[in-house]
Amino acid sequence: MTTSTGHGPLTGVRVVELGNFIAAPTAGRILAEFGADVIKVERPRTGDELRTWRLHGGDVSLLFRAMARNKRSITLDLRSDRGQDIARRLIADADIVLENFRPGTLEKWGLGPEEIRAVNPEAVLVRISGFGQTGPYRERPGFGGVAEAFGGVRHLTGYPGLPPVRTGISLADSVAGLYAVIGALMGLLRRRAGQPGEIVDVALYEAIYSLMESSVPDFDAFGVTREATGPTIPGVVPSNTYQCADGKYVVVGGNNNAIFDRLMRLIGRPDLAEDPQLRTNVGRVERSDEIDAAIGSWTATADSPRILELLATASVPSGPIYAVPDIVADPHYAARGMHERHEVRIEQDETREVLFPGIVPKLSEEPGRTRWLGPELGAHTGEVLAELGISPEQAAELRTGGVI
């Protein structure tokens, strides 16, 4: 393994990130947060398109600044012979290679698994795509929204009888990024045992499908097809969203038998607590409307802070539905270090301290940290090329030729 200036359990691990957008960069971000030296390869001139996604001012989005933190950015035209040669030299010294191009793209560029193993038999190759590297749909383009639909989650979102909706975040890409990290770390463990480099195949739709719990067994065994259910979750009662006197909503989960007893006594319904049918979840499911109505009548009697205070005192799992301003203001987020303030250029001639999300998970001995935000395009090209033995004069020639 190579050395790096990182700090954390992955210090000394070098990652070459060939991907763009969300999925592979999510994996690279996590690895970089815990010390890996992540070299992000971007197209010359335009870079990763994420640089201009959700842009609110300036020329680089804050989404990119967050997603590329701790990474070193180099520019490299992977469609050119010279660019591919430099990529192979980078890979020869890498522990992990990340990519999320359409299947067959790396092979077209002479950077497929065989070529990677030829220059670095121990490298762990992590491949993320819409539908995976095999199967009849492998060549289909597949972004996160498509994967969420194909994987089953989109069918379950929203309310019955209304068009399916999506969450306002890149769910499939982010979950696939997590699986990519898991696969990469498993590959490193395999290397430790003296085995050749692993190839990790992550499909966006499979990342979503893995979240579908017992949907398929329920269908296959009983013919039950889950449908959209609004704020509830099928077969778990009570677990719902209830409106308070101030018009705000709270989430209450009283589906544990002992918790249900406490909740019913709290809301003044000991009769439901003592009802034999309602002492198990199976019985409560049959009378979910009655239970939800009882809880909703109670939450409507007071403002949400008071309702949440009473629920917490009774040890009933509950919480508010937060928007981003609520998250920023909440003291628990701050106490857990889930906000980091960094100076960032938000306009051509203006810098400002801006809050960014903290790092997950929390480690006691070698926690992750932000060393720098996502860099300017190609900020580390000269530095990385020098590490490969490419002189400044050669780098200038490559730049003139559009290779970097």
UniProtKB/TrEMBL annotation:
- Please give the Gene Ontology molecular function terms for this protein: transferase activity
For this UniProt record, the keywords arranged alphabetically read as follows:
Transferase
Q: Has keyword Transferase? A: yes
Family per record: Belongs to the CoA-transferase III family.
Family matches, as Pfam families? CoA_transf_3
Superkingdom of the source species = Bacteria
Name recorded for this polypeptide: CoA transferase
